[in-house]
């Protein structure tokens, strides 16, 4: 199945990414065989899609054109993207629409919670667009969604994948107080590439955000991820691992960057499965509780099984009394 969505021909890229419309086209590299995935279409996939639509939800699985959607939705693992489908940032790697978002949907927390219950999820991942237009960056809305899920499905563990809440004083503290089981915020790439790849963000701010989560509540698992294949060096990746460990991050994800359209950042190269394995081995020696490193790894890929592994790893690491 093709996983690169070249929406430019239909003029859709212009509408989704107006800030990228005048950029020169970048070449699309042919994907190696280890990137290819099966086309979605199982009955459970269709049922997941029906539940998502019925509750008027947006998913990052669809908005980001995730290659794993066939596999994940066949297990009913959909990752909800709250606060709309339009992002106030314009990262060079991301397929989510850029622009001025609509006002928050007050019914969204209940809709998300009802969908989670209907899907019967043991573990759910909730992410969002960046909402720099809101005074609290959407922190209060995150809290409402977490609380609604807890009311509706008390046995479901909640993982959040948040924006960086840059210049939103008190936002992080508000979200941490809601006690999600996993707090994920992606570093996305190495610091040298931030200006090109993640221009609205700051590497050390993002790292500090995760460190603060641990300082405020050490019981919350922290998680972060990077994409590789954007032009980073191996040494830079290892340095990011060290920085993450200094910030006390528990769980690292590393996956291959895939280019959504010709207007997005070009793929520098496809990192081989052996290199991913090597990153995993090194990261484990650096002390992460869990590492997921493979070409198709995404933040929310296998998040359910990984949460169980994360909890087991913490229990095993705790000293016996
Ligand atoms: S990896 Fe995450 S974003 Fe991709 S389809 Fe699975 S749940 Fe959705």
Structural class: alpha/beta
Largest sheet: 7 strands, parallel
Q: Compute the CA-based radius of gyration.
A: 19 Å
**Individual helix count:** 12
CA(first)-CA(last) distance: 52 Å
Beta-strand content = 5-15%
Order of helices and strands: HHHHEEEHEHEHEHHEHEHEH
Fraction of helical residues = 25-40%
User: Which shape, going by the Cα principal axes?
Assistant: globular
Identify the bound ligands.
iron/sulfur cluster
Mean pLDDT score, rounded? 94
Uncertain runs are 1-10
How do the strands line up in the largest sheet?
Answer: 1-4-5-6-7-8-9
Total count of strands: 9
Task: Describe this protein's structure.
This protein has helices spanning 12-16, 43-54, 60-63, 69-74, 108-119, 139-152, 171-177, 194-197, 203-216, 234-246, 273-285, 303-317, and strands spanning 80-82, 86-87, 97-98, 123-128, 157-161, 182-184, 221-228, 251-256, 290-293. It is α/β, with parallel strands linked by helices and 321 residues long. A 7-stranded parallel β-sheet has the order 1-4-5-6-7-8-9, sandwiched between helices. Helix 5 packs parallel to helix 6 and helix 6 packs parallel to helix 7. The radius of gyration is 19 Å and the shape is globular. Residues 1-10 have low confidence and may be disordered. It binds iron/sulfur cluster.
């Amino acid at each position: 199945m093709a996983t690169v969505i070249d929406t430019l021909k239909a003029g859709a890229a212009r509408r989704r990414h107006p800030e990228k419309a005048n950029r020169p086209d970048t070449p699309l590299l042919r994907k190696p065989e280890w990137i290819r995935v099966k086309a979605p279409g199982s009955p459970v996939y269709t049922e997941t899609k029906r539940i998502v639509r019925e509750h008027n939800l947006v998913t990052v699985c669809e908005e980001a054109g995730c290659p794993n959607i066939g596999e994940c939705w066949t297990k009913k693992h959909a990752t909800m993207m709250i606060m709309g489908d339009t992002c106030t940032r314009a990262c060079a790697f991301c397929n989510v629409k850029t622009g001025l978002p609509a006002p928050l949907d007050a019914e969204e927390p209940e809709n998300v919670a009802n969908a989670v219950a209907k899907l019967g999820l043991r573990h759910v991942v909730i992410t969002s667009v960046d909402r720099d237009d809101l005074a609290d960056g959407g922190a209060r809305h995150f809290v409402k969604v977490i609380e609604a899920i807890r009311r509706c499905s008390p046995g479901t563990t909640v993982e959040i994948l948040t924006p960086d809440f840059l210049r939103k004083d008190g936002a992080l503290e508000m979200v941490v107080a809601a006690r999600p089981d996993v707090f994920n915020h992606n570093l996305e790439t190495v610091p040298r590439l931030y200006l090109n790849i993640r221009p609205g963000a700051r590497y050390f701010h993002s790292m500090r955000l995760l460190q603060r989560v641990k300082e405020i509540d050490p019981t919350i698992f922290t998680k972060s991820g990077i994409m590789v294949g954007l032009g980073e060096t191996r040494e830079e990746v290892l340095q990011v691992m060290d920085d993450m460990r200094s910030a006390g991050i528990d769980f690292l994800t590393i996956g291959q960057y895939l280019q959504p359209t010709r207007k997005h950042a070009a793929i520098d190269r496809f990192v081989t499965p052996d290199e991913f394995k090597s990153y995993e081995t090194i990261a484990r020696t650096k002390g992460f509780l869990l590492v997921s490193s493979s070409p198709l790894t995404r933040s929310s890929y296998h998040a359910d099984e990984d949460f169980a592994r994360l909890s087991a790893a913490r229990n095993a690491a705790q000293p016996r009394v």
